[in-house]
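Exercise 3.2. Students should predict the tertiary structure of the chain below and write it as structure tokens, then compare their answer with the key that follows.

Predict this chain's 3D structure.
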Amino acid sequence: MTIAPDLIQPDRGQDATPIHLVNTDTFETFAKGLSGPQRAALEAQKFNGGGYQVGIVPAKNTDDESWFAVGGVADPDELSAWCMAKLAEQLPAGTYRRAENHQPGPAMFGWMTAQYRFDRYRKEDDPEGPRILLTKDAAKIDLVTAEAQAASLVRDLVNTPAEDMGPAALEDEAERIAKAYDAKLEVARGDTLEKGFPMVHAVGRAAARSHAPRLIELDWGSDDHPRVAIVGKGVCFDSGGLSMKTGRGMLLMKKDMGGAAHALALAELIMKTGLKVRLHCVVPAVENAVAGNAFRPGDVLQTRKGLTVEISNTDAEGRLILGDALTLASEHDPELIIDFATLTGAARVALGPDLPALMARRDQTAEQLIAAGKDHDDEPWRLPLQQTYAEWLKSEIADTDNSHSNGFAGASVAGLFLDKFVGENIDWAHFDTFAWNPQARPGRSKGGAALGLRAAFHMLRGRYG
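Answer key:
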């Protein structure tokens, strides 16, 4: 992991530098309590209480070498996950606490994620060391640390280039999790997939042997607990297949396994926190490559479900591998299935990079996911599973087509395709997530991003905790 586990520590009265949080409304009152040199120091730093501003203020006594920090936030009384992230990025290494017995609350998460570093290929020395934050809410430390590490796992996996994060590497990650939490791991590989998971095999068969396709399963928990399935799209690189993307379109396609990264991170978070569920995690892992044996536009694929699928676009491959995976998950009759996928550009056109699109069969489940996301700064936005659009997937020679040609409602139509492979009457929610942050912001460096992870986890905690 590329985030330290001890960045949040219990406040036992140890030495720490105070942090005062203000906003533009409260800064003037705060500044009146400062000495002239202290106000001058903040003025020199152009600090006026604006969001994400950071100021360093010397002690009133010039003989005293101590100092304190000031951070600008939207509301000092209602912190978000990201309120103190800029402080964690910019302050010198050391130990800090909020001043006047205030607690950091939800800002602990951003304090940790702000110190994430992806250093697999380029080591960046930080001679100063970590920034540690103290809290009297010691009971919350383990949970927020687990969440921050889960988010960092998503970022690590997504940030890793496809050559080093192929299907075998996703299997290795699943094996690590299985060993750490005594889960059962089963993996089907290569040509053995052709009978049981024909769409996974078809999409992945053109890849080099070292990147041969996989169907990865993790089982964990007691049979006495409700069965929950987590499914993640693991397209480790997407060339578009024979419906090939442009070079620019391929540039970020190492992140097309972002759904698998979310599924594995959520599975580990569930195990680590001991959630009372019978967990079934399914990850179909492939590379959508180009070779003489690649599946073609016009081909008709068999599926685990028994439906036939006409291929009109080999670049709509994520929904194919998810179809077989969702069928498998449904066969175990779960109470709930949640899947994650970097599925459609249409979702990004509609919602941009920050909001994962959410589709769900049941209003109550969607409402719970949205509420959990709002409460933890990870809000999804619901899109419809509009059944009248399902006719756009009709095929003249097969049970369904894998894409539609009119360009309307692309995210919802992809969701409707997946819906065909989820068992009848099963509660199901689908996240079409971007898994990427296109520009650096406090607590969220540019690159891989966990979007929808905390919403799903806290919904599950609320339902099964």
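Discussion points: The CA atoms of residues 113 and 456 lie 18 Å apart. The mean pLDDT is 96.
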